[in-house]
């Protein structure tokens, strides 16, 4: 099932998402499949629960699409449920990020080059793994979503002023997009 992507301005994007309970985890596999389908249909590399209207700590990524063919870096495709970043390490690196919930807006975000994260995978196995490079960046972007943080929150004050009009247009549904979206109610 393809869900509409929640647009900038919807309050759910600014809420800290809730953990899944043991009982709620029983049917999470179907949601994971739908999240991948939604993400891929929108040509994204990551999608978090709040972005489809679920205030739950879940996100999916496929960083393979961000890895340069000539790079030694390996991409990663998977689901992260009840995730918790337990360590960030390495140099801070800038990269131009965008977001399915904020179409047509990009900006440089500085993030640590590596993380260690604890989570449940799509088979509900508990994992603790280290990720670096582009995969770490995609995970951190999606992790921010379940913490109620948008990439625009990381931008400089000047950049925020420059994109203010675009953000206002998104909240009004006045933005070109090539996938289903749900805009804030007026």
Give a nutshell description of this structure:
This protein has helices at 28-41, 133-146, 157-171, and strands at 5-6, 46-48, 58-62, 77-97, 107-120, 126-132, 181-182.
How is this structure best described in words?
The chain has 186 residues and is an alpha+beta fold. It has a single domain (5-175), classed as Peptide deformylase (Peptide Deformylase, Alpha-Beta Complex), CATH 3.90.45.10. Helices cover 23% and strands 29% of the residues. It is built from three helices and seven strands; from the N terminus they run βαβββββααβ. The protein has helices at residues 28-41, 133-146, 157-171, and strands at 5-6, 46-48, 58-62, 77-97, 107-120, 126-132, 181-182. The strands form two sheets. A five-stranded antiparallel beta sheet has the order 2-3-4-5-6, sandwiched between helices. A two-stranded parallel sheet has the order 1-7. A hairpin with a 5-residue loop joins strand 5 (107-120) and strand 6 (126-132). The protein is globular and about 45 Å long. InterPro entries: Peptide_deformylase (IPR023635), Peptide_deformylase_sf (IPR036821). It catalyses: N-terminal N-formyl-L-methionyl-[peptide] + H2O = N-terminal L-methionyl-[peptide] + formate. Fe cation binds at residues 99, 141, 145. The active site is at 142. Its cofactor is Fe(2+).
